[in-house]
Amino acid sequence: MKVVSVLPRHYSSAYLSILKKPTTIVHRRAVLPSSNNCNYSTVSPPPQKLSDNLKDLHSQLDKDELLADNTPDYVRLVLRSSVYDVINETPISNSVSLSSRLNTTVQLKREDLLPVFSFKLRGAYNMMSKLVSKMENQHNVTGVIACSAGNHAQGVAFSAKHLKIPATIVMPVSTPSIKYKNVFRLGAQVVLYGNDFDEAKKECARLSEERGLVNIPPFDHPYVIAGQGTIAMEILRQVRCVGNRIGAVFVPVGGGGLIAGIAAYLKRIAPKIKIIGVETYDSQTLYKSLKMGKQVQLTSVGSFADGTAVRLIGEETFRVCKDHVDEVVLVNTDEICAAIKDIFDDTRSIVEPSGALGVAGMKKYVTHLHPEIDHSKLIYIPIMSGANMNFDRLRFVSERAVLGEGREVFLLVAIPDVPGSFKKLQKIIDPRSVTEFSYRFNRHHNDENGAKAFIYTSFSCVDREKELKQVFAQLEKNGFEAVDISDNEMAKSHGRYLVGGASNIPNERVISFEFPERPGALTKFLNGLSSNWNLTLFHYRNHGDDVGKVLAGISVPPTDKEKFEDFLKDLSYKYHEETNNLVYQKLLKY
Ligand SMILES: Cc1ncc(COP(=O)(O)O)c(C=O)c1O
Q1: What does the alpha-carbon distance between residue 448 and residue 527 come to, in Å, rounded to a whole number?
Q2: What is the CATH number of domain 72-118+222-400?
Q3: Ligand 1 pocket check for 119: Cβ under 6 Å
Q4: pLDDT for 500
Q5: Is any atom of ligand 1 closer than 6 Å to the C-beta of 382?
Q6: C-alpha–C-alpha distance, residues 480 and 464, integer Å
């Protein structure tokens, strides 16, 4: 298991002196795009009923930063943004192989090339520079504080260094050292506090109050949103809307700052361009909120795409999104991994999972969701939003990319346990290359037709649907039973490594857990086990993920059923009962 150094629960602080020299200053004047095909929308939005929170938030803006209805004038805020004090415009790269594969034109907006490797710098800097310029003199700013274990932290630290104001970043104790060291290097004070993000956030609020530090929010503030919106201004300048050819911009969504900024600007200047949000299935707060017509808080979020793992879309960002976002596409982990590979193939850059959401969503939009659109005539622009990739994750990403691309199929096949069956199976799969094949003799798999062998196999393919149909037809003809288990998470994480481990254990319960990747996690699990329960199976493989995936089998006497449920609850690790999972039933048990 990955070992993360244990840090004290109370915060340990680190100071680094702020560098004297400012970073490169490249100032560009913001201009409206000149193309005739961009039509400036002058229609005033209908008056909106705003919560007191939002009224308060909007009242922090200057009068000339507001529209007639007292909501932020995002076009004006974008045009006045100061982000070019610290960044150059990011380029747009042609994505040659994706364009030819999808028969469309794909142009990637390269936010991964910014100084802290993500767009977050734009919003953080814009807000902080406004803060400084609103003070008569910058010495009045006691400092800023932010809670983040990711890209926002680096954006705030970088901006603070440039503006020569002190910054404090609060991060959970479990934050990988690569992340807090980077923030520290950028000159911020790092406070490691709490076991999770919520505890760190509370400490951040407390410190902000106690020390009079201004809290820089990661997404839900007009200046942050406007900073992110400068991306839209650049896109229109860079791509030009010849013949209205920009079909859509694909935007990764977390708390919604990025998409709100882009949408607010584009829907005023070039309203025909579609704004498509992309979220993961396990972090779909915008998707659900749009469906319900109000902010929806998720009870938990997945951690693979950590940059976008947000439980609640912002209030201001949702206000903007509900008027301007055309659609939200949901993608899974395998599709994100495939997108990371696509981006690598075209640019030789590796983006982080959240940074690849735009490409993953665009692929789904073109290949599955909109057959009625002639994509060949349009330009699609996914935002490559960040590249702070944890190197350890690459193994997992490369393993899953082939599945996400639909270039590999996992099957569980039951064949008669008689000589010649393997050969027949191999012939059916041939000429496709077999990428995995696991079997162990097990005389206990018998039915009325005789003994059976269960095979776990995977093979490469080019046209998944078509080839799978052919293979299944052949398998059936030969009397083999097969199930496609490419979407079976337990099979992909564990089952494939456990083939042949079948046992006949009374009262066995099989549970998959997400152990936090921190010392003591295993001890806590083992200590919680009652002495009359038997640990019958334990499988773990490091996937370079934030959590350790563990499969455990435990034999629990029926009289201890309730005690066992209490154990699972007290452990407070995410878990899922796998006792009825097909892979367990067929491969691990008789
Ligand atoms: C790489 C990356 N992409 C996308 C997002 C989502 O941005 P937002 O929270 O503004 O929706 C984040 C947020 O931190 C991020 O780090």
Answers
A1: 45
A2: 3.40.50.1100
A3: no
A4: 63
A5: no
A6: 20
Ligand 1 centre and the CA of 258: distance in Å?
7
Q: Relative to the CA of 351, which ligand 1 atom is closest?
A: 1
Question: How many of the other CB atoms lie within 10 Å of CB of 416?
Answer: 16
- Residue extents of the structural domains in the chain: 72-118+222-400, 120-215, 406-487, 498-588
Close Cβ partners of 125 (under 8 Å, ≥ 6 residues apart) = 82, 83, 85, 86, 87, 155, 158, 159, 162, 163, 227
- The DSSP-derived string for 208-245 is HHHHTPEE--SS-SHHHHHHHHHHHHHHHHHH--GGG-
Catalytic annotation on 5? Answer: no
Q: What are phi and psi of 51, to 5 degrees?
A: -70, 165
Question: Which residue stretches of the chain have pLDDT < 70?
Answer: 1-47, 136-140, 241-244, 419, 440-446, 500-501, 519, 541-546
Residue range 120-215, CATH number: 3.40.50.1100
Asked if the domains 72-118+222-400 and 498-588 are classified in one and the same CATH topology, the answer is no
Ligand 1 pocket test: pick from 113, 224, 308, 328 the residue with the most ligand atoms within 8 Å of its Cβ.
Answer: 308
Atom from ligand 1 closest to the CA of residue 387 = 1
Ligand 1 atom closest to the CA of 253, numbered from 1:
11
Q: Does domain 498-588 have CATH number 3.40.1020.10?
A: yes
Continuous H helices in 325-410? 333-347, 357-364, 394-404
CB 389 within 8 A of CB 341: no
* pLDDT the model gives residue 444: 62
Q: How far apart are alpha carbons 155 and 186 in whole angstroms?
A: 10
Question: How many CA atoms are closer than 13 Å to the CA of 463, on its beta-carbon side?
Answer: 4
3-state secondary structure of 548: strand
The closest alpha carbon to 253, from 278, 229, 275, belongs to: 278
Other CB atoms closer than 10 Å to residue 466's CB: what's the count? 10
Q: One of 385, 458, 493, 512 is an active-site residue; which one?
A: 385
352 CB near ligand 1 (under 6 Å):
yes
Q: Which of 118, 283, 285 to mutate to test the pocket of ligand 1 (most atoms within 8 A of CB)?
A: 118
Total Cβ atoms within 10 A of residue 517 = 17
Going from the C-alpha of 572 to that of each of 138, 309, 430, 531, 567, the distances in angstroms are 46, 19, 46, 20, 9
Coil, helix or strand for 412?
strand
Q: CB–CB of 542/1 below 8 Å?
A: yes
From the CB of 120, is ligand 1 less than 6 Å away?
Answer: yes
Q: How far is the CA of 151 from the centre of ligand 1 (A)?
A: 8
**406-487 to CATH, choices 2.30.110.10, 3.30.70.260, 1.10.3720.10, 3.90.1150.10:** 3.30.70.260
CA angle 163, 180, 122 (to 5 degrees): 40
What is the reported pTM? Answer: 0.80
Q: What is the pLDDT of residues 308-326, one digit of tens each?
A: 999 999 999 999 999 999 9
Candidates 120, 182, 216: which one to mutate for ligand 1, based on the most atoms within 8 Å of Cβ?
Answer: 120
**Any catalytic annotation for residue 452?**
no
